[in-house]
């Protein structure tokens, strides 16, 4: 439940520059107008004319693929999509932003109110004057965003330190900006051109690597691995400095975007009729127990955003030994893993890895674990994710296959293929979902823009849908009535200026209606794949018509089409998994495993 900050009712507030029009029905209004009497209205202008923004700030929608470089606001790669930003979000000159330079009267009134309520001295008032101006220079209001109070206050402390100013305490500072949450300011963000953006990105990025582990470590042998425990308590140890406090605050902010309540599913028992030579049922029980502990350790590491430690966990479990050790010792010797070796010697582990029942059991375990990790990292594909967290997830996904293949260098090839197929499906899912999230945030601004929606409706009404249906019918063989109904529903939903979440519900309903005749049939997965192909082909025909007509809103339609295609894939993937009783990771993993097996047979 959201709670207002204690004492905030007596404080004064200051209006920040507004970048996106606020909706009257939204209950989370954060930045309130400076309270003024009727006779003061001539002295302080409170009316804001907010333009309908057609620009998406890169800080809201960017993601980074590849290197560890941290991209600041405005540095988003221009090759992400084939259209230009200006073509899609041309700036409307009809509206005006709220001018922060003309808000000196508001600052004076805020200081005066605080002076009366808190008994501030004249010197203290002049300090608050500079503090408020700093807020106006670096922050603005916007829809659909939030900022942790601790983050904003840490920015403020740094500002005071750099300019040798005496900071006010957190309670007094909170009175300058009112919020309806105890921990967050909803509707406030750093301005795109503020130097705080670089600081914020750096702190978020550092948080990925320096946060101490907060949850109980459930994998006891892991604590003995050289460097792993140090990764939790050494490099991430707090020293009390403001920078590291900011790091911890940012990391805690990132963890709020995760779903840490997810637990590993039950792995089940190994179904085996005959034991491999040289092994016993106790060895199989040891393998089950060790692998469960290993997967729980991976989950703990992911929840605490210590992605790089997963490579060490894999090396530990699979008893990784380099072909040419630098110091003549193996990872087992240097890490003191005698406990693991005593529970299941490596020779027996290799023998068990050749058995088909063990392969199948471990593959099922991996699918369940990776699905849990996906739901932890991206619990809602439509909810905004901080850019630094998105970057870390994508870089993590890029490294997974290489880490695992390297750690299993002395394991039977069949087991490596099974494990790599599962982790590849996991990595691909992370890439797809972060891309989907990126598209969702870019499209959200378009769907909230009235003038853009009107232009899209005008352009869509010029499309010859009869001709589109005639051309697509030979390939899609769709029912004409169903296509007509979809066209009508799409236009109506667009005209109603539906939110992104309402569009998501509409897409889900379209998918359910199209696949309803195939429910409960073995042909359901094939029918679902055919539906995806038909959906993509038909939408491409509509985009083609818009292109030939040089539609002014082509860029917006292209973005919407990319989002809806990707989200429809997401919906179908989960619906097929539900129908087959498997996880979405397993559905994708089976395709990759079949492809690898086919390639292997070809050679």
UniProtKB/TrEMBL annotation:
The keyword DNA-binding applies. It is found in: Nucleus. GO terms for cellular component: nucleus. Keywords: Developmental protein, Differentiation, DNA-binding, Nucleus, Repressor, Transcription, Transcription regulation. GO terms for biological process: cell differentiation. PANTHER family: RFX TRANSCRIPTION FACTOR FAMILY, TRANSCRIPTION FACTOR RFX3. This is Transcription factor RFX3.
């Amino acid at each position: 439940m959201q709670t207002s900050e204690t004492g905030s009712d007596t404080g004064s507030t200051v209006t920040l520059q507004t970048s996106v029009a606020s909706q009257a029905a939204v209950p989370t209004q954060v930045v309130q107008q400076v309270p003024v009497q009727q006779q003061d209205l001539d002295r302080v202008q409170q009316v804001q004319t907010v333009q309908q923004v057609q620009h998406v700030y890169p800080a809201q929608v960017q993601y980074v693929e590849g290197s560890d470089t941290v991209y600041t606001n405005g540095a988003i790669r221009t090759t992400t999509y084939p259209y230009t930003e200006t073509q899609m979000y041309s700036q409307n000159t009809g509206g005006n932003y709220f001018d922060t330079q003309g808000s000196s009267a508001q600052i004076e009134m805020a200081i005066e109110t605080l002076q009366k309520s808190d008994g501030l001295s004249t010197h203290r008032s002049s300090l608050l004057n500079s503090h408020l101006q700093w807020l106006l220079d670096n922050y603005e209001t916007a829809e659909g965003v939030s900022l942790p109070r601790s983050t904003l206050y840490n920015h403020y402390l740094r500002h005071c330190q750099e300019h040798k100013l005496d900071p006010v305490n957190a309670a007094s500072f909170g009175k300058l900006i009112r919020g309806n949450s105890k921990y967050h300011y909803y509707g406030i963000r750093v301005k795109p051109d503020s130097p705080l953006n670089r600081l914020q990105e750096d702190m978020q990025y550092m948080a990925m690597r320096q946060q101490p582990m907060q949850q109980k470590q459930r994998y006891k042998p892991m604590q003995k691995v050289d460097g792993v425990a140090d990764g939790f308590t050494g490099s991430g140890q707090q020293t009390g400095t403001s920078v590291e406090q900011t790091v911890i605050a940012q990391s805690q902010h990132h963890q709020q975007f995760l779903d840490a309540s997810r637990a590993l599913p039950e792995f089940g028992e190994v179904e085996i009729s005959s034991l491999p030579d040289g092994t016993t049922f106790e060895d199989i029980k040891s393998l089950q127990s060790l692998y469960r502990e290993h997967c729980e350790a991976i989950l703990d590491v992911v929840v605490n955003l210590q992605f790089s430690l997963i490579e060490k966990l894999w090396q530990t479990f699979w008893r990784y030994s380099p072909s040419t050790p630098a110091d003549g010792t193996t990872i087992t010797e240097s890490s003191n893993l005698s406990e693991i070796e005593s529970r299941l010697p490596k020779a027996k582990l290799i023998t068990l890895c050749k058995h088909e029942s063990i392969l199948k059991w471990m593959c099922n375990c991996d699918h369940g674990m990776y699905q849990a990790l996906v739901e932890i990292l991206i619990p809602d594909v439509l909810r905004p994710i901080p850019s630094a967290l998105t970057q870390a997830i994508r870089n993590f996904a890029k490294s997974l296959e290489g880490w695992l293949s390297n750690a299993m260098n002395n394991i039977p090839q069949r087991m490596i293929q099974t494990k790599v197929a599962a982790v590849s499906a996991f990595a691909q899912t992370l890439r797809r979902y972060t891309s989907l999230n990126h598209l969702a945030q870019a499209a959200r601004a378009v769907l909230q823009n009235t003038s853009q929606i009107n232009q899209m409706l005008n352009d869509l009404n010029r499309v010859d849908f009869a001709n589109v249906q005639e051309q697509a019918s030979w390939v899609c063989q769709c029912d004409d009535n169903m296509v007509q109904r979809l066209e009508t529903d799409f236009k109506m939903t667009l005209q109603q200026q539906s939110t992104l979440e309402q569009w998501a519900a509409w897409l889900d309903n379209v998918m359910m209606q199209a696949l309803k005749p195939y429910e409960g049939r073995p042909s359901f997965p094939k029918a679902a794949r055919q539906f995806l192909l038909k959906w993509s082909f038909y939408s491409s025909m509509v985009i083609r018509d818009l292109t030939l007509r040089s539609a002014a809103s082509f860029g917006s339609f292209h973005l919407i089409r990319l989002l809806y295609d990707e989200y429809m894939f997401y919906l179908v993937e989960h619906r097929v998994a539900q129908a087959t009783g498997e996880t979405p990771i397993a559905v994708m993993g089976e395709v990759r495993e079949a492809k690898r097996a086919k390639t292997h047979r070809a050679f």
